[in-house]
Amino acid sequence: MASKLPARITKLKEEKNAIILAHNYQLDEVQAIADYTGDSLGLSQKAAQTEAEVIVFCGVDFMAESAAILSPDKTVLLPAYNAGCPMAEMITVEELQNKKSQHPEAAVVCYVNSSAAIKAESDICCTSSNAVEIVESIASEKIIFVPDKNLGNYVASQTDKEIICWDGYCPTHHRVTAKDVDKVKEAQPQAPVVVHPECRPEVVKTADYVGSTAQILEFASKSNAETIIIGTEQGLFYRLNQANSAQKFYLLNQGLICQNMKLTSLIDIAEALENLQHQITVPEETRIKAQSTLDKMLELSN
Length: 302
Ligand code: 13P
Ligand code: SF4
Prior knowledge:
By secondary structure, this protein is an alpha/beta fold. It has 3 domains: about 1-85 and about 260-280, Rossmann fold; about 90-170 and about 290-300, NadA-like (Rossmann fold); about 170-255, 3-Layer(aba) Sandwich (Rossmann fold), CATH 3.40.50. About 45% of the residues lie in helices and about 15% in strands. It contains 14 helices and 12 strands. The chain has helices at about 5-15, 30-35, 40-50, 60-70, 95-100, 115-120, 130-135, 150-160, 180-185, 200-205, 215-220, 235-245, 265-275, 285-300; strands at about 20-25, 35-40, 55-60, 75, 105-110, 125, 140-145, 160-165, 195, 210, 225-230, 250. The strands form 3 sheets. Strands 2-1-3-4 form a 4-stranded parallel beta sheet, sandwiched between helices. Helix 1 packs parallel to helix 13 (about 265-275), helix 3 packs parallel to helix 4 and helix 4 (about 60-70) packs across helix 14. The longest helix is centred in the last third of the chain and has 18 residues, at about 285-300. The N and C termini lie far apart (about 45 Å). The model has no long low-confidence stretch (mean pLDDT about 95). Iron/sulfur cluster (SF4) binds near residues 171 and 198.
């Protein structure tokens, strides 16, 4: 028997004047009922523009926090209250303040995968799709880049600016090794290897294309390759397969699954809408500062 949950969610969504936003790594059934599925940049843009009263954010906590920062008059819900991002938790405000005092002349760029408090301590935010462009837009020649060292190293390889990387990383993308790329290139020499910049530098260096989840989708839709090797989280396969039925996609490493991104279920979404839970809010003083870092990024990316 087909699940009644999608119909229940649609009804609740209308009753509550809600929009469902889902990240590209969410479970297939969650992506299927979402109003919009995208990468971190696209999701921030949607959250900032929506006229819905309620935003149901199917992703991890920093994403819902960004929506709450950008749309303070909306009710922002995180259906899976315990969905966090281990990388975002690899830096504290105190640690960032210490780093800033060691390099007072440096500007701070924070990856969107960070808490509201870290965003509030930073000069400008970036996502994986615009990190190079954002760093290049800054007047300062010295940049403290937090918290992802892999994305920071990727940016450093694309710019002449001095990048001081924080030592954080995404445990999921960090699992991919250069050996995985060598093996797959030997087995499938014709297939382009496409990776997310959260992968290690030695993986990024040998890949044929590097991009955010939305950029990887765009690459696949423009590519004539019959087979493409995907070096990012497995959830992206839902949209890759939907949009490109003639192509075959293989995961570069079977460990490319983020457990936090898989926590949100259809039941969680229905309950979130029914009970308006779990509401994400940011203290106003932090929110105002964090909004400025996000707004600067959005202005440069629109
Ligand atoms: P993007 O969708 O922006 O590429 O983000 C990847 C990611 O790891 C989000 O947690
Ligand atoms: Fe965080 Fe990595 Fe999961 Fe994205 S994929 S939420 S960066 S742990």
